[in-house]
Amino acid sequence: MISALNKLGDGTLELTITIPWTRISETYKESLSHLAEKIAVKGFRKGKAPSKIVEEKIGKQEIFEETLKEILPKIYLEAVKEHQIQPIVNPQISVNSLEENKDWQIKAITCELPKAELGDYKGEIKKALNTEKIWVPGKDQKTPEENESQKLEKIFKTLIQTVKISIPTILLEDEINRMLSRLIDQTAKLGLTVEQYLASVNKTTEQIKKEYQTQAEKTLKLELILSTIADEEKIQVNDDEIQKMIEAIPDQKTKESFQIPEQKVYLKQLLRKRHVIDNLAKL
After folding, report:
1. CA gap 103, 1 in Å, rounded
2. I want to staple 109 with a disulfide (CB 3.0 to 4.6 A). Which of 92, 132, 231, 247 is the partner?
């Protein structure tokens, strides 16, 4: 296997992988053998037909596709290890060539966790928050809840505007697709199609995608910035904090669901982010 890595300006990683025909041929035989076990051929017991007859019945193209499915995860993992990268999303795969007796070539697009250049984020937040402390005669007094909400909004806006971070296109697309999937699920629960819902709110598919793109970029930037701050400030969350949060959940079924390791990891990330926001609010 030969692979080349190309790093794009937004942090996207392109892996071009060439797979030798000798290796493809071996996997092709294995795939054909597996398919032969499942195929019924007239005149033979199931799984006992000669490979040549099975190959003719199924067709080489379908066997090539099965071969690719079998070999792809292995060669992708090998390329990732070779270039010492740490992808955070499933790769987008495209096939450049898929011919018999020739090396195959594929392209895998992925990305690593983007790095944020924090700069003097604390100083910028202090400046932004100090403007809130200036009282203007005649200005309406806000409730504590309004003050807190506006304070957090100002902190988040300042972070997004001042911290340098580039979001890879594939990561942005991944988040937009998740948002669209949630929209499909939500409209289905209402007994509507997405088209019917969009018509009811007087929006087009393109408009909602554009809105989701803006929202996704803002959400991803903020999440990554807060995570970077948590790392820089060495903010830790212990097991007692996580358990205390779980115990505070009123519904017993929900409480039990958060006892699994994956959900505890999620709660840990949530608590770290909360600690970061609390610290920023005190600046």
Report:
1. 10
2. 92
